[in-house]
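User: I'm writing a tutorial on reading structure tokens. Could you give me a worked example: one chain, its sequence, then its tokens, then a sentence or two explaining what the tokens reveal?
Assistant: Sure. Here is the example chain.
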Amino acid sequence: MGGQTCLTCRYEAREAIDAALVAGEPLRDIAGRTGLSKSSLDRHKRDHLSATLVKAAEATAYAKTVTLLLEVSEAQRQAIPKTCRRSLWPRTDPMQSPRITGLIAFESF
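And here are its predicted structure tokens:
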């Protein structure tokens, strides 16, 4: 860059820009809101956006996915009527049945 400081790095709302870039917001939208050029934002994203921020965003997305899968699994467990649980499976918790556990694992992916 020949000694010049990145315009996006100097921007007062850089943290908000970084968050929008990590979230995958279109450069054109960020540029329209900030007055920075798409090329400046693209260079900043490529050269200066911390890999840690990107990894953190990926980890957050993964955690949300796991939480959703657990909620779906619980909803499926709740959907089995208690009378069926007692009559079909001698186990206290039908979710411990290998067949049900396998079905939930399969449906989760």
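What the tokens reveal: The chain has a mean pLDDT of 78. Residues 7-49 form one domain.
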